Each structure stands twice: as structure tokens, then as C-alpha cells.
């Protein structure tokens, strides 16, 4: 069963939601039958950090709140992240435009490294205080997850996967998604936000049960009464 996750790598709740979702899946007996597809989303597509502003400056300016209020708000997020086993450092966090980071994720998906790319980008942004808006940082991350450096440079210095990112965002609008993280299960159910682990577990179980019941069932009838001309673990009947 496919689960599509719309996410932005500068969104702390997306990072927390990813961890809660993973913790839920790990406990489920059908975890190997879940296919995850990460989708691009930009919370602030027009943003570019040209003044080396901190996340507190960014929140204060964009939300019209005092710096101290921004710090208090982020402290609550830090506590929530800690409960999920994550360490987020907003004191040194660098706000950034994430369009090229999403293009890197699409490149990683081409090589079956999409989930690892998501994880490393979250870690770089929230834990290691890297500027994920810088091409050099993204190239280093590409190499770290096992992508070819020349290919990553070619993609990030060009326009490849730009339309794929835009299409993900367009698709989210058609689905009525107005915030992230947003988890779409089998294109049937949607779960919004960094829900608790149990909420993800319940939603996945319900979705998977219905998906499994809808799968075609094959009834095998053998017309070979002598059961010869067959190969099995014991060899071939000759």
C-alpha cells in the first residue's frame, strides 16, 4: 500500500511527524507491505535568506511577533521533538529556501535513496545547522547518501526535477492540502500534522486492512493430476 507524504524540509513538524510515522510502522506486522513516497511542498516558496537572519528573526518578521515570543514558541517544538527522540537546535538554525533541496530528493528517489535524503536533509537543517539553500551543502549531502557527485552537481546547477517539484505542489493543491506534514494513505485517507504514534498506527491499520481486502484474490486450480514436470526446493522431476 502506498503512503504519500507531503513535506517541507524546513518544517520541524514534518521532521517530528516522520519519526512518529516510522515508529508506528515499525510495530506493524505488515510494515514490509508499505511503500512510502515523499512529495515536495514549500511553506514559503518566495523566501531567500539574504540577510543571514536567524530563525527567531524570520518568525518574528513573518508572523509579526516579538523575538521572545518566537523563542518561546520554538521551545515548545524542541520539547515535542525531544519526546520523539530528536534534537532540534533553533539557536543556530538557518532558514532557507528549500526548492533545490526538493530537487535533490527527487534525484535521490531516482536511485531509491529518497527516504535517506529526507532524513539527512532534516538532520542537516535542524540538528547540524547547515544552510540547505546552498548548492555546495546539498552536493555534500548528495555524496553522503551515496549519490554520484557529478550527477548531483549537474542536477543542482541546472533545472532538472524542477517541474517534478512544482507538480507535487500542484497536486497538493488539488487534494486540498494546506499544511504539512500531510500523509495520504492509498489515496483514500489523509492524516494531517505530526500526530502521535498511536494515531498513525490506527490510520495505517485501517487503511491497510481496506487496501488488502480490495486486492485481487487468485484461486489456483491444478490441471496436472500427476504433478510431474515441476521444479521445487528438492529439484526437478524428470
Which descriptors apply to this entry?
Glutaredoxin; 9 helices; two-stranded antiparallel sheet; 4-stranded mixed β-sheet; 10% strand; 6 strands; 238 residues; single chain; alpha+beta
Ranges with pLDDT <50 over ≥5 residues?
none
Please give the CATH architecture.
3-Layer(aba) Sandwich
Number of helices: 9
Number of strands: 6
Number of domains: 1
How does the helix and strand content classify structurally? alpha+beta
Shape verdict: globular
How many strands, which pairing sense, and closed or not: the largest β-sheet? 4 strands, mixed
SS strand fraction: 5-15%
Summarize the amount of helix as a percent range.
40-55%
State the fourth-level CATH superfamily: Glutaredoxin
What's the CATH C level? Answer: Alpha Beta
Give Rg in angstroms.
Answer: 22 Å
Compute the separation of the termini in Å: 41 Å
Overall pLDDT confidence: 93
Widest sheet: strand ordering? 2-1-3-4
Find the CATH topology.
Glutaredoxin
- The SSE string, one letter per element, is EHEHHHHHHHEEHEE
Mind explaining what this structure looks like?
It is built from 9 helices and 6 strands, in the order E-H-E-H-H-H-H-H-H-H-E-E-H-E-E. Strand 5 and strand 6 (235-236) form a beta hairpin. It is an alpha+beta fold and 238 residues long.
In short:
This protein has 238 residues and is α+β, with helices and mostly antiparallel strands.
